[in-house]
Recover the amino acids of this structure.
């Protein structure tokens, strides 16, 4: 049995993420970032996306945060204005620190439906204008272990004695759990962090053993405490992600893909993007093969 928790967190809010249109013809189930939950500090957006060509996310910018793309099925090809290009396949991870500016396209493989999760992690005022950076892990390089009927893939942070090599500028944990029927999880979470669960498959019991079960596409916000307890009392596999982060406690002013602390900084960002300055220089002559630019 895993270590004991003194003060397990309970579920304080629950949301079902329904499909909506985003990008160009793409479908996302947005949980964080929708109207009822604008921000869950430090998390700006959580999208479970499903894209089938010719849909996708053509040329668009980002500034002031990180995008974390974790593929569940199929693949997405990304290409940015500096010529950084690659394909994120099933089980692969791209942790992109947009910092002062990235302009890129994210487009699905031509055949089939591509599915994954994209999380937007805010950066503190000190780090919003840092140099862009990519951290990429292919599926085989993601730390994975199984113990007592519980498999974990450690995207960020650590669990069941294994660690991710990803550096999180905003301290973050991101764990992908698959629990066998009858298994019971106890996972520590730093006390001061905000944390949530998003269910991908099956049904699980979270927080208190007597609480009602929760199925796919639900987001659960966890209350105060030192960790998460979860049970699979069903006859099928249960898969979910557990994500936590240290809250920044700063004002957030967002305009589409630009996230800053003040309206002045947003005005400056729009100016920089339109005039190709302060990190957007390379956007002047760059277009991806998809050309079309995404409105925000
Ligand atoms: C974006 C609209 C968008 N969720 N999930 C406006 F759709 C996007 C955007 C994405 C996105 C991309 C992938 Cl690969 C997966 C996503 C939104 O690109 F950035 C803005 N501003
Ligand atoms: Fe993007």
């Amino acid at each position: 049995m895993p270590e004991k928790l003194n003060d397990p967190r309970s579920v304080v809010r629950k949301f079902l993420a329904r499909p909506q249109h985003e990008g160009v013809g793409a479908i996302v189930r947005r949980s964080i970032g929708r109207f009822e939950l604008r921000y869950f500090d430090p998390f700006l957006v959580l999208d479970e996306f499903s894209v089938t060509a010719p849909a996708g996310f053509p040329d668009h910018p980002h500034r002031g945060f990180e995008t974390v793309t974790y593929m569940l099925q199929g693949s997405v090809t990304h290409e940015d204005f500096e010529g950084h290009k690659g394909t994120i396949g099933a089980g692969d991870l791209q942790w992109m620190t947009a910092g002062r500016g990235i302009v890129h396209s994210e487009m699905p493989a031509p055949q089939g439906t591509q599915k994954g999760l994209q999380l937007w992690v805010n950066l503190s005022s000190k780090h919003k204008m840092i140099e862009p950076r990519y951290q990429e892990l292919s599926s085989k390089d993601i730390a994975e272990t199984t113990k007592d009927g519980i498999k974990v893939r450690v995207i960020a942070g650590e669990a069941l004695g294994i660690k991710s090599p990803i550096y999180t500028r905003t301290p973050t944990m991101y764990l992908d759990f698959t629990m066998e029927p009858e298994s019971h999880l106890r996972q520590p979470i730093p006390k001061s962090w905000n944390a949530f669960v998003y269910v991908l498959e099956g049904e699980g019991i979270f927080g208190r053993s007597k609480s009602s079960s929760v199925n796919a596409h639900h987001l659960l916000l966890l209350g105060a405490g030192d960790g998460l307890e979860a049970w699979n009392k069903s006859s099928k596999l249960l898969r979910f992600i557990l994500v936590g982060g240290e809250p920044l406690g700063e004002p957030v002013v967002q305009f589409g893909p630009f996230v800053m602390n003040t309206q002045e900084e947003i005005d400056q960002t729009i100016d920089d993007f339109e005039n190709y300055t302060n990190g957007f220089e390379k956007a002047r002559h760059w277009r991806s093969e998809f050309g079309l630019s995404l409105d925000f």
